[in-house]
Specification:
By secondary structure, the chain is mainly α. It has 13 helices and two strands. It has a two-stranded antiparallel ribbon with strand order 1-2. A hairpin with a 4-residue loop joins strand 1 and strand 2.
C-alpha cells in the first residue's frame, strides 16, 4: 500500500509541475475525440471529416473555456445540417442557441459536462458521469446531466427529422411547427431517455448527499452506493417500463464506474483515519468540536551512502 501512495505522490507532483502543459494537452485530446465522434456520426459535410480539420478545431478548443467549445460544436453541427436540411438548421440551431444563452453562457465550466455525457454514451461507459458529478460537482450538475442525456437520445431521431422538408417557402412555418412537434413528441415518448434522466439525477443526488456525511471512508461508501443505485434503478425501471436497456451492460458499466471514480477520489485526497483526532476549543461566543483527520503524504526517501574506509 505504501508503494501505491508513493506512486500517487509522484504523479501529483508531476501534474502540478507541468500543469500548464498537461491541461491544454488533455483538452486537445478530449476535443479531438469529440470532433471525430461528432463528424463521423453526422457525416453530412465532407470537409469536417478530414483529419486536419479535426486537429485544427481541437487545437483551438484546447485554449478556450468550455462554453466556447460548445459554441464551436453548435457551429459544426449547423454546417453539417446545411448540406441536408434547411429546416433542420433553423429549428435545431435555435434550440441549441437557447440552451447556450440561458445556461452554458452563464455556467461555462458546465459545458464540458454536457459534452462528456453523450461522448461517454457513445463509447458505452456513461454511468461514470452521475457518480463523478455527485462526488465532485453536486446539485449544479442536474441541468448538464439532463441536457447531455437529451442530446444523446435526440441524435437517434436526427435522420427522421432531416427527412421532413418544406415544399416551398410558404410552407416553411408549418414545416417548422411539425418538426418541433415531432421532436417534443419523440423525446417525451422515449421511455429509455426518461428512465436514464431520472436514474442519473437520483444517483448523483445519493452520491452527493452521502459524501457530505461525517463517517470514515464516506466518499468511497458514497461511490459504491451510487453504483448500486444505478444498477437497481435501471433493473427496476427496465421491468416496470419495459425498456430495452441491457442490464448486463448496466451492471458491468456501474462496476467500472465505481472503480474509475474511486481512483479519481484516491488521487484527489487520501486520509489516514487511524490517526483521526477529536479536538475541542472555544472562543467568546462558541464552543467548537472538530474531528481532524490527517492527509496521507509519503515523503521522498533519502538515500544515505555509507563510505567504508
Amino acid at each position: 500500500m505504501t508503494k501505491l501512495y508513493e506512486i500517487r505522490e509522484v504523479l501529483i507532483t508531476l501534474i502540478k509541475r507541468y500543469e500548464r502543459f498537461i491541461g491544454p494537452i488533455a483538452k486537445f485530446i478530449f476535443a479531438l475525440i469529440v470532433f471525430i465522434k461528432l463528424n463521423n456520426f453526422l457525416d453530412y459535410a465532407d470537409v469536417f471529416n478530414k483529419p486536419i480539420v479535426n486537429i485544427i478545431l481541437a487545437a483551438v478548443s484546447s485554449f478556450i473555456p468550455g462554453n466556447w467549445l460548445v459554441l464551436i460544436l453548435i457551429i459544426v453541427i449547423s454546417n453539417h445540417l446545411f448540406f441536408v436540411s434547411l429546416e433542420a438548421i433553423i429549428i435545431i440551431s435555435a434550440i441549441m442557441a437557447i440552451i447556450y444563452l440561458m445556461y452554458i453562457r452563464i455556467f461555462p465550466k458546465m459545458g464540458y459536462l454536457i459534452v462528456i455525457v453523450p461522448l461517454l454514451f457513445s463509447v458505452g461507459i456513461p454511468y461514470i458521469v452521475p457518480i463523478f458529478a455527485g462526488l465532485f460537482i453536486g446539485p449544479m450538475s442536474i441541468v448538464p446531466l439532463f441536457i447531455g442525456v437529451v442530446i444523446y437520445f435526440f441524435g437517434g431521431y436526427l435522420p427522421a427529422l432531416t427527412s421532413i422538408e418544406a415544399k416551398d417557402l410558404t410552407d416553411l412555418p408549418e414545416t417548422l411547427t411539425n418538426m418541433y412537434k415531432t421532436i417534443v413528441t419523440s423525446l417525451l415518448n422515449d421511455k429509455t431517455m426518461m428512465l436514464t434522466i431520472i436514474i442519473f439525477i437520483t444517483v448523483m443526488l445519493i452520491t452527493y448527499l452521502l459524501s457530505r456525511l461525517e463517517y470514515d471512508y464516506i466518499w468511497y461508501i458514497a461511490i459504491v452506493a451510487g453504483g448500486i443505485t444505478n444498477m437497481l434503478g435501471f433493473t427496476i425501471g427496465n421491468i416496470i417500463l419495459k425498456t430495452d436497456v441491457s442490464i448486463i451492460k448496466v451492471v458491468f458499466g456501474s462496476i467500472f464506474a465505481i472503480a474509475i471514480v474511486s481512483i479519481c477520489q484516491f488521487f484527489k485526497i487520501s486520509l489516514d483515519y487511524s490517526r483521526a483526532e477529536k479536538v475541542q476549543f472555544e472562543d467568546d461566543d462558541y464552543i467548537y468540536y472538530v474531528k481532524a483527520i490527517p492527509k496521507i503524504k509519503i515523503g521522498k526517501q533519502v538515500k544515505k551512502v555509507k563510505r567504508i574506509k
